[in-house]
Amino acid sequence: MSGCARRSDLARGRFLRPRLAPGHRLGRLAAVTFFLTAATCGAAQTPQRVVSLNVCTDQLALLLSPETLVSVSRLARDPRTSAMAETAAAVPANSGAAEEVVLLAPDLVLAGTYTTRGTVELLQSLGYPVALFAPIDSLDDARANIRQMGDLLGRPERAEAVIAAFDARLASLRDTPARRPRVALYYAFGSTAGRNTLPGDILDAAGMDNIAEARGLPYGGTLPLESLILDDPDLILIGRPYAGHARATELLEHPALRGSGKLHVIEGGQDWVCELPQLLDAVAEMRTLRQTWEAAQ
């Protein structure tokens, strides 16, 4: 374990242990790492140079400790994938390569459990403290990750303030509709999200019933077009396609969908992904859609 790791981090078990195989040759990168690690291990316990490799950890760090963030992933600056793209534009971006990270001399690296695995494993072998965050499946998970990030970055008070505001706004958005519309989330290639998924939880908080949940479909489960038509949902939610033609989104252009009068394009798709207060913008958008639908019945 790196000598720069903090007591609270050790207790939570979030850091990866170095796994340097006997005789492993790291070459020039090892020499650079040795120098930079020696220079940073004497730093204060609160991280002072944080590098993030994942679009969700990018934004969490921007939210809670922007002053210690020295680099974010390129996706953080893309408004199609990041709810904080404008803020992230002021921070240098990285491509996720280990060499870039080492030269930034971080005392903490943030990553997702399923992204940049090669980089994470190499940094792990070099002794860098790496904190991994799993994708969230619910609004409750969002609170947990905000709190965890606050602890890691030495900003627990900021994290608790964000959570308190999150809970207050969520409470104001919840209501009891006379009738909950049956809704289908329909993504590229006919994929959807059902039970125990963040999109499903957003729909539930907005007072909607997700037809994929009734079918027991997970995130990324497939809902054939024929099944979608037979299920006859009240609303069909699709993301705004990227510019240009793509086979992945051809199904969304099918006449059976376009002519149904039930399609709604989700405007803020970037708000549906990460553990941020912007999740509630997604809830608010869906609540407004539900109220519009109710008024038309």
Total domains: 2
Mean pLDDT: 84
- Helix fraction? 40-55%
CATH class of the largest domain: Alpha Beta
How would you describe the overall organization of this protein?
The chain has 297 residues and is of the alpha/beta class. It folds into 2 domains: 7-165, Rossmann fold, CATH 3.40.50.1980; 176-296, Rossmann fold, CATH 3.40.50. The protein contains 13 helices and 11 strands. The strands form 3 sheets. Strands 3-2-1-4-5 form a 5-stranded parallel sheet, sandwiched between helices. β10 (235-239), α12 (255-258) and β11 (263-266) form a beta-alpha-beta unit. The N and C termini lie far apart (61 Å). 38% of the residues are buried.
Compact summary:
This protein has 297 residues and is α/β, with parallel strands linked by helices. 41% of the residues lie in helices and 13% in strands. It folds into two domains: 7-165, Rossmann fold, CATH 3.40.50; 176-296, Rossmann fold (3-Layer(aba) Sandwich), CATH 3.40.50.1980.
Tag the structure with descriptive keywords.
single chain, 297 residues, alpha/beta, Rossmann fold, five-stranded parallel sheet, four-stranded parallel sheet, 13 helices, 11 strands, globular, disordered N terminus
Write the layout of secondary structure elements.
Layout: H1 7-12, H2 27-40, E1 50-52, H3 55-64, E2 69-73, H4 85-88, E3 93-94, H5 98-103, E4 108-112, H6 117-125, E5 130-133, H7 139-152, H8 156-173, E6 182-185, E7 191-192, H9 198-205, E8 209-210, H10 211-214, E9 221-222, H11 225-231, E10 235-239, H12 255-258, E11 263-266, H13 279-296
Parallel strand pairs: 1-2, 1-4, 2-3, 4-5, 6-8, 6-10, 10-11
Antiparallel strand pairs: 7-9
Helix pairs in contact: 7-8, 8-13
